[in-house]
Specification:
Oligomer: single chain
Helix content: 25-40%
Bound molecules: adenosine monophosphate, zinc ion
Radius of gyration: 21 Å
Number of strands: 12
Order of helices and strands: HEEHEEHHEHEHEEHEHHEEHEHH
Strand content: 25-35%
C-alpha cells in the first residue's frame, strides 16, 4: 500500500511539471515538453492512416441539433457541455453584464462542445449520397469536452481526440475494427507501453442502451486499450474500438450503394492519455527514452 502511495505521489509531481493546473478541474496548460510528445504521437498516428482516407480537423464545438439527432442525450447527457451566450444587441448585453447577474441570463446556442471527434462525420457522409462499395474511411481530430465528475490523473474535462472512422458493410466495419485491435497492440509495443485489451464496461450507447439490449453482440460493441497510468493495478483507457451497428445510419439515413443500411465503427486515440503513459513509462527526460521509442515518435 505504502509503495503504491509513493508511486502515485511521484507521478503527481511528474505530471505537475508537464501540465500546469488552471482554476478549472481537469483543465491544464500544457508545457512545451508535453506538446513535443503530443506532436510525436500525431506524426506516429499519421503514419498509420490507410490510403484514400479523408482527413478532417474539427473545431472544439459542433451542432447541437446534430448531437441530439445522434442520440447522445440518451447515452451520456451527464457529460455534455453546451455553448451559452448573452442575447441582445451590444448595448443590451453591456447593460445585462453591468447588472451583475449575467450568468443567469445566458441562453443556450445552437452549438455544443464536441464530446467525441467522430459525431460530425456521419451527417457529412450521409449528405454525399450512398456509401461507395469499397466503403469510406475518415481520419478526424477534435478538442473534446466531457463534464467528468472526478479529475484523477488522466481524466481531463478538456482533451484531444483523434479517430479513424469506417462506414460500409458490416463485414468492412468489423474487419476494420479487428485489424485496428491488432495494430493498436503492435503500436503500444513499439512505444514500450504495457497494455491490455478488454471489453468496455460502458458501451458506446451508454447505460440505457446496455440495459435495453444485453445480447452477446452488444457486449462486444466496444473494446478498450488499457494502460496502467496511475499505478500498476489501475488502468486507464487510452484507445477505444467501437462498432456502432446501424446506430448512426438510422439517425442519418446512411445507405450503401445497394440500398442496405450502412454500418459504422470508429477507433479513437486519446493523445493526452497516451502522452502521460509515455512519460510515466519512460520518464521526463526524452533523451533517456529508448531509441526505438524516440525513433517512432520522431523525437
Ligand atoms: P471514448 O469515446 O470514451 O471511447 O473515448 C475515446 C478515447 O478518448 C479514450 O480511449 C481516451 O483515450 C480518451 N478520453 C476519453 N475521455 C477522456 C478524458 N476525460 N480525459 C482524457 N482522455 C479521455
Ligand atoms: Zn467515434
Amino acid at each position: 500500500m505504502l509503495m503504491v502511495r509513493v508511486a502515485e505521489d511521484e507521478l503527481d509531481s511528474q505530471i505537475r511539471s508537464l501540465l500546469l493546473p488552471s482554476p478549472g478541474d481537469g483543465v491544464y496548460a500544457r508545457t512545451a515538453l508535453f506538446e513535443r510528445v503530443i506532436e510525436g504521437l500525431t506524426t506516429f498516428i499519421n503514419r498509420q492512416r490507410g490510403p484514400e482516407t479523408l482527413i478532417l480537423s474539427f473545431p472544439p464545438v459542433m451542432s447541437r441539433s446534430q448531437l441530439e439527432r445522434s442520440g447522445y442525450l440518451h447515452s451520456f447527457p451527464h457529460l455534455l457541455g453546451g455553448v451559452s451566450c448573452l442575447e441582445g444587441d451590444e448595448a443590451e448585453v453591456h447593460a445585462l453584464v453591468e447588472q451583475g447577474d449575467w450568468v443567469d441570463e445566458l441562453s443556450a446556442t445552437d452549438l455544443v462542445l464536441s464530446p467525441a471527434a467522430c459525431y460530425p462525420v456521419y451527417p457529412m457522409a450521409a449528405s454525399g449520397g450512398p456509401i461507395p462499395t469499397k466503403g469510406l474511411l475518415f481520419d478526424v481530430a477534435s478538442d473534446c469536452f466531457r463534464r467528468e465528475s472526478t479529475h484523477e490523473i488522466g481524466r481531463f474535462q478538456s482533451f484531444r481526440m483523434r479517430e479513424f472512422v469506417c462506414i460500409g458493410t458490416p463485414e468492412q466495419v468489423l474487419e476494420f475494427r479487428t485489424e485496428w485491435m491488432c495494430r493498436a497492440q503492435r503500436l503500444a509495443q513499439v512505444l514500450g507501453l504495457s497494455y491490455r485489451i478488454a471489453p468496455a464496461t460502458d458501451p458506446f450507447f451508454g447505460r440505457a442502451g446496455r440495459l435495453a439490449a444485453m445480447s452477446q453482440l452488444e457486449q462486444s460493441l466496444k473494446f478498450e486499450l488499457l494502460i496502467p497510468l496511475r499505478s500498476e493495478g489501475e488502468t486507464t483507457a487510452c484507445m477505444s474500438f467501437n462498432y456502432h451497428l446501424e446506430h448512426f445510419s438510422s439517425a442519418w439515413n446512411l445507405v450503401t450503394e445497394n440500398g442496405a443500411k450502412a454500418h459504422t465503427g470508429c477507433v479513437a486515440f486519446g493523445p493526452d492519455r497516451l502522452a502521460l503513459a509515455l512519460f510515466k513509462t519512460h520518464g521526463l527526460d526524452l533523451g533517456k527514452w529508448p531509441a526505438e521509442v524516440r525513433g517512432n515518435l520522431s523525437l
